[in-house]
Amino acid sequence: MKNAMRPSTLSTLGLGNVIDIFANGKLPTNTGELVDKVFGPAGKRGALVVSGANGIVGAGKVMQLGSRLEPFGIPIVALDFPGVPDGIGQQYPGLVRAFGSDSAAKVMSNVVQFSYDGKSLPARLSDFNPRFLLEAIPEILEIKKAHFDLFTKTFPGIEIRSVTSGFPQSQLGVGIAHPAFPHEINKIYEIVENEPSSVTQLLWALGLIPMMVSDDWAFVLDVFFCGLTLAASRYHETSNMPYWKIDKFVRRLIGPNPFRAHDAIGAAGANFLTWSCLHHLSKHYGDLFTPSTVLEEKMTSGQNWYPLNHFRPLVDWALSDEENQDFEVRLLGPMFQMTSLMVHEKRSHMATMNAIGELCAQFTRGLPAVIRARGADASRQLVEQYHQLHPEAAGGAWHPEAFDAIGSPEWQQLYVNAEHDGTVGVISIGREAYNSDVNVEMNRAINWLKAEGDFHLTTQLTGADTGDFFPALEDAEMGVAIAKGWSETARRLHSEFAVSVGFVNGKRALGGMLELLMHCHHLVAVDDASLGPVVPGMEGCHWPFRRVAKEHWPRLLSFLLEGRAVRAPKALDWLVDFAGPLEEALAAAWNTATGGDFGLPAREFADGALSGVADTVPPLDPAGDPGMEAGRVAILANIKGSTSVPLAEALDVQARHSGNFMTTKACLSGVIGGMYKKTVKI
Known about the structure:
Helix content: 40-55%
Largest sheet: 8 strands, mixed
Mean pLDDT: 93
Number of domains: 3
Strand order of the largest sheet: 4-3-2-5-6-7-8-9
Shape: globular
Radius of gyration: 26 Å
CATH topology of the largest domain: 2-enoyl-CoA Hydratase, Chain A, domain 1
CATH architecture of the largest domain: Alpha-Beta Complex
């Protein structure tokens, strides 16, 4: 019998549970079989048609899907009006950067472009046997419906998905696959279907990230994105603060730059889409979503929100404590209320809603995580304070009871889930960067799984969240507390399970996430995974030396001091225990966790003081700048200090080194310090 802390996001796609992947030794889908279902068998493949293909969405999806479907011989038909700007051509340099000139040319050789008048389809289109239409034409309901009617009459049975950002399936009559910006690289699609289809599962099999959402106006992403823009524009109308300055305070509060984002996407189109979503939402939910006067003006004019740089004043100003509180109420109040609406309507899995906010709307933390941290009562009070400033918003779309379940596993495990089959447990991490939320959820998952066995399924793990270190830049004790607390969690993977296996199934595992997985008894990676670099703060300066033979220490020293990533196969023995194709890696992990015949042998682990780890530093490439050189000196000092004492003492030693370095000039001048100045020191 299988059990889980909460339903997995994988199950919402009809793909089972994470533990099934390991038990079965393979992914739950076969890409080739799904291609056959959607596009027909090899030799008789039909085409993917992208309409509105030269627009910002269409062109991005021609590149993204074209590069993934080209190996299967699926032609991409790009359809648009004659004379429109060449959006596809503008995307081509990015394709070259991603895949190289030869591969990019091969992808483009599979793209056929047709012009049409919007009323009839090109006669030659039928030569390509269209099987799937991805519609990306203007956001006007009647035009879209006529477009679908044209295709279904000409090609009965064709699969159709709209990229609409606001219209529900009930209005359009077709499924929704709403992609997130930037469209050529963002892998997330909001999917509206009665049941997960072969199209949706094919997107997942191709390495994209479909997320199931309910059939409600603006889904999830554009309630967040358009709602935040509305709140910020209303603050402008109240305060007369310039848009670029409001962006700075929004970025410090929750992460995004809503006005700059509109300009980056293209103000004329983005302003209209935001207005359209809010306009339709207001018709259904009331004044909470009514477009502001300035947003109406920007929609009509299509003008950018930001002025040219030389029109921005050189003299800046700060907000008083009272003004900061007012700003927080006017921004977070409506956003919390909108979140309550979506939770009430069950628009998505809670972890999905949270992830859409972070990965698509660029929130530092998803709003469910922000509300959880504040607490249900305090979050309700904030909305009520907002209603005192904007009484009209209290008239509808406010569901304070939606926060009653904040203590449930669905709310409490937004980033980390755990499953077990009675013998073996799996912890899956659904956030790219480690932060304090993940740390708390990891501890809960370990508690839940304790004594069941443990290993991890990961995708792309990009280190630690820099924002969590901001307080430590001015207070070394804060840095010590973070390094020590996170390391104590990581140590539980080593000390509280009979067998633990870290599993890297993605392009990379970096920084703090790699340090976390190093604490497992075994580390398994797919052969195309990139590991590191590590900026040690989670025992990376001593733990890996304790789990390998002495002859591998020079490799580890080079790895830590040069700060370069390494491919998993080249890290065998001195960093990872197994690297291979996915199914072989799954088998190695499962056999090891279950005690199977082909499991990995146990490593010896040295918990005493190590002698001579850094006596001889291997030749290193030039640091390149003073900051990196200072970092090398600090890392080497941490290595010497934390390896020269027993494991029981090393936790405090490495945490002290890490915390002290955070306040140095070198750290303040580096990446974290730069983000701190940009985000906090405004």
